[in-house]
Amino acid sequence: MQHDLKIKGYTVAQFPNAPLLVAILAVILGLFASDGSTLFDLARAVFFLGLGIWAYLELAEGVNRFRRFLGLAGLAYVILSLASQLG
């Protein structure tokens, strides 16, 4: 049984899938680590990986345009965030 949040029959939210749950758990783990520590860096890497996978899946297979747009926005966030770390 799936519980979606719908507005006028349009799905706007769903229970998080596995990659998004991993990203959320990584953020929580990162809150308990000191900035710059190995644990913090690992949590950050896992967050970006999980969020990137979730965003790709939403962009490619989202149930509607809104969900695909969320995937595009999530993927843009991951790419821009990682690019800013390189420069």
Task: List the SSEs and their pairings.
Blueprint: E1 5-7, E2 10-13, H1 18-31, H2 38-61, H3 65-86
Antiparallel strand pairs: 1-2
Give the helix tally. Answer: 3
Shape: globular
The neighbouring-strand order within the major sheet is: 1-2
Arithmetic mean pLDDT = 91
> What's the order of the H and E elements?
EEHHH
Strand fraction: 5-15%
Q: Kindly name the structural category.
A: mainly alpha
Which value, in Å, is the CA radius of gyration?
15 Å
Q: Largest sheet, described in full?
A: 2 strands, antiparallel
Residue share in helix? 55-70%
The counted number of beta strands is: 2
What is the first-to-last residue Cα distance?
Answer: 46 Å
Question: What count of domains describes the coordinates?
Answer: 1
Spans of at least 5 consecutive residues whose pLDDT stays below 50 are none
Describe this structure in words.
The chain is mainly alpha-helical and 87 residues long. It has one domain (16-86). It is 69% helix and 8% strand. The chain has three helices and two strands. It has helices at 18-31, 38-61, 65-86; strands at 5-7, 10-13. The chain has a two-stranded antiparallel ribbon with strand order 1-2. Strand 1 (5-7) and strand 2 form a beta hairpin. The longest helix is centred in the middle third of the chain and has 24 residues, at 38-61. The termini are far apart.
